[in-house]
Amino acid sequence: MRYRSTRSSTGVTVSSAEVIARGIAPDGGLYVPVDIPRLSEPALCELVNADYSQRAFEILRPFFDEFSAEALLASIESAYGSNRFPGQVVAPLTVLSQSEAILELWHGPTAAFKDMALQLLPHIMLEARRLAGIDRRILILVATSGDTGKAALEGFRDVPGIRVTVFYPSEGVSDIQRLQMVTQQGDNVNVFGVHGDFDDAQTGVKRVFGDVDFSKRLASAGWALSSANSINWGRLAPQIVYYISAYCDAVAGGAIEFGDKVNFVVPSGNFGNILAAYYAMRMGLPVNRLVCASNKNNVLADFFNTGTYDRRRTLHRTTSPAMDILVSSNLERLLFEVSDRDQSTVRQLMSDLQSTGHYSVGAALLSRLQSAFWGGWCDEPGVMQTIRDVWSDHRYVLDPHTAVGQAVYKQYLASTGDGTFTIVVSTASPFKFPDTVVRAIAGDSAVGATEGLETIAALERLTGVVAPKPISELGSLAVRHPETVDVSEIPRAVASTVDLA
Ligand SMILES: *Cc1c(COP(=O)(O)O)cnc(C)c1O
Prior knowledge:
Elements: E1 2-5, E2 14-15, H1 16-22, E3 31-33, H2 41-47, H3 52-60, H4 69-80, E4 93-97, E5 100-104, H5 114-118, H6 121-131, E6 137-143, H7 147-156, E7 162-169, H8 175-182, E8 189-194, H9 198-210, H10 212-220, E9 223-226, H11 233-252, E10 262-267, H12 272-283, E11 287-294, H13 299-306, E12 308-310, H14 331-338, H15 343-356, E13 358-360, H16 363-372, E14 373-377, H17 380-394, H18 400-416, E15 422-426, H19 434-442, H20 444-447, H21 453-463, H22 469-472, E16 484-485, H23 490-497
Parallel strand pairs: 5-15, 6-7, 6-9, 7-8, 8-16, 10-11, 10-15, 11-14
Antiparallel strand pairs: 1-2, 1-3, 4-5, 12-13
Bound molecules: pyridoxal-5'-phosphate.
Pyridoxal-5'-phosphate binds next to α12.
């Protein structure tokens, strides 16, 4: 498969290996495949009785066709094997009612859906590097607001030829998220707290990426800088798999007949997860509607309802922090696809966003968007109410991000009456956000003075559900990365991780 940039008019294409190694296109656009592969009905039917790795192999093969079949399969098997996803469940579907199921994407090592892509990306990146003839070692730099940093550390840990260095805001992550990062094991990982908020950490890291002199010093020491953020196609492609896999599981379990359409509801932030659902639909998966769920930061919901994307608003801190985002980078790929791959439209809209903070798509484009997507959002009291309701109605525990999805699904039902079987995507284990979940189910007094690790035990007692092992064992792990730095010290910290003077 060849890939092109969403902003290019030159007809230049690059290989999947280059796409993975580069991340972002030189013109600032995002890479997309030149053709969207088709998944025929018989091919989909064959996947119904396959396991997750076989499904992943068949779905990903056309996207990475310069990779040898052996290398791709080996990568997939290491990523989704039972030592990473215990109990042979990778992305299980839990049926809640006749018309609704939950797709749990948090059975990986960090208990959030980012594992689905970040467990596979390192293997793909190594192979891409080999195919592209790059022999320098790779330094992956990450600024994280929580989930991405930990998933990248866990994914790249002990991968030969790669080092990963993560900066998190020392005042901006939950207790559990911080513990997950500072106890990280592996010989090729570094973690630093940054005094400040996520923007401070991100600004500091971006400065390192933009420092030409620093890149030269790195290069002469045999290193190349890279990033693992969600605009890399290598993070998007693995996410297509679980939508198709969920459909197969719904057929295999008798919830739907083969060929029936389904809806997916996706708690969204940077728009990477739901975009993968859109690509699955374009490949031929029978999908009726994609419901895009936002929290109080409702810029995407407004966009799907009005056609205007407007980032000029204050960012609210919510109980679903992974969705506290004002600029959803992956939306650029959707604009490209729904405009029939018109790079001049994409360039115009992205330049409007850059210069004025907003853009509007015309009526024709809006109506195309609305035929595939429905957008809604949920405020903080709604999140708490939804966690409580789903627990009392179904004895099922939702994390706050998934609760946003569930609440928006209820709005969608009320507004459309659509009875299509619907799969709500669950993006994190409730045990990653135990304070909020305990408070929602049992009231503020149940949390009391406890926080972090103690609330994990409280949530277990309250629900009878056992916390995932990587979360419950956090208290017994040694802190290996206690260091915190000022924003101005980030370059020095990066240099120290690769032994640059
Ligand atoms: C990253 C994340 C999201 C948002 O996903 P996008 O792909 O950025 O839209 C939602 N929930 C959780 C728990 C996440 O970690």
